[in-house]
Specification:
This protein is α/β, with parallel strands linked by helices and about 240 residues long. It has one domain: 3-Layer(aba) Sandwich (Rossmann fold). Helix content is about 45%, strand content about 15%. Strand 6, helix 8 and strand 7 form a beta-alpha-beta unit. It is globular, with a radius of gyration of 17 Å.
Length: about 240
């Protein structure tokens, strides 16, 4: 099993859409047994995968150990893809981790799922908190969506500095440019600084995901956005294969 976290300090950078599309790519293109675990209280990834039917206010209880994961994990309409949905109870997740006071609690939860899944995609809450720190320490790869702008790049540097300053081992961070419009001067200039970083273009199809409740690769497989996510996933799989 491998754990891929999709994380950003900032909201509104395409984090949840990225998580959904990567989870779909894992399930559909790689035929991996895949779980999308939505840890963001806003529940955008859960909404896209039609997780609204899940009982409310139980996501936190599962992490606390009061509810078994199997009670909340539900299959989606896509083969090989299950969902562990978020709800508003996750707003108190940082406090829960503080009360539990176990640095390896997230590791234990993930370990309990390893026999059922080949890939777990984590849609992480924004911000640099106790929750995100536990996630970053226990993922195999961390995908960080970055809008090509100075503020988003600054947020990425803050994450790198925080993790490196603690001196503890953490997963490799893979920046990903999102919402890219090459017609914009600032976007072109920013992309030129890191030409090897993956790029997801600005796309109306990505905006349509929340209406259709489907990943881009499912309803628009030939679109530039779908091809970009597919390429990103192939790169992630190659990195995981190298260990």
């Amino acid at each position: 099993m491998a754990v891929i976290a999709v994380y950003s300090m900032k909201g509104g950078v395409g984090k949840s859409c990225t998580a959904v599309n990567l989870a779909w790519s894992s399930a559909a293109q790689s035929a991996r047994r895949t779980l999308l675990w939505d840890l963001d209280a806003q529940g955008a990834a859960s909404f896209i995968l039609d997780g609204g039917k899940v009982k409310k206010d139980r996501a936190r209880a599962m992490i606390a150990g009061d509810v078994k994961p199997g009670k909340l994990i539900k299959p989606t309409s896509f083969d090989n893809l299950d969902l562990l949905a978020a709800d508003v109870s996750l707003r108190g997740l940082d406090r829960l981790f503080f009360e539990i006071n176990k640095k390896k609690h997230m590791k234990k939860l993930l370990h309990g799922l390893q026999n059922d899944y080949d890939r777990i995609i984590l849609d992480c809450p924004p911000g640099l908190t106790e929750t995100s720190e536990q996630i970053l320490r226990n993922a195999d790869v961390v995908i960080i969506p970055v809008i090509p702008s100075p503020l988003s790049e600054r947020a990425l540097k803050d994450v790198q500095l925080f993790l490196d300053s603690n001196g503890r081992k953490h997963a490799p961070l893979l920046p990903l440019y999102t919402m890219v419009d090459r017609r914009r001067t600032i976007h072109k200039a920013t992309l030129a600084k890191h030409p090897k970083w993956p790029v997801i273009p600005m796309s109306s199809n990505i905006e349509r995901m929340t209406k259709l409740k489907r990943p881009v690769g499912d309803f628009a497989p030939g679109s530039p956005a779908a091809k970009a996510f597919a390429k990103l996933w192939r790169g992630i799989e190659k990195r995981l294969a190298k260990g």
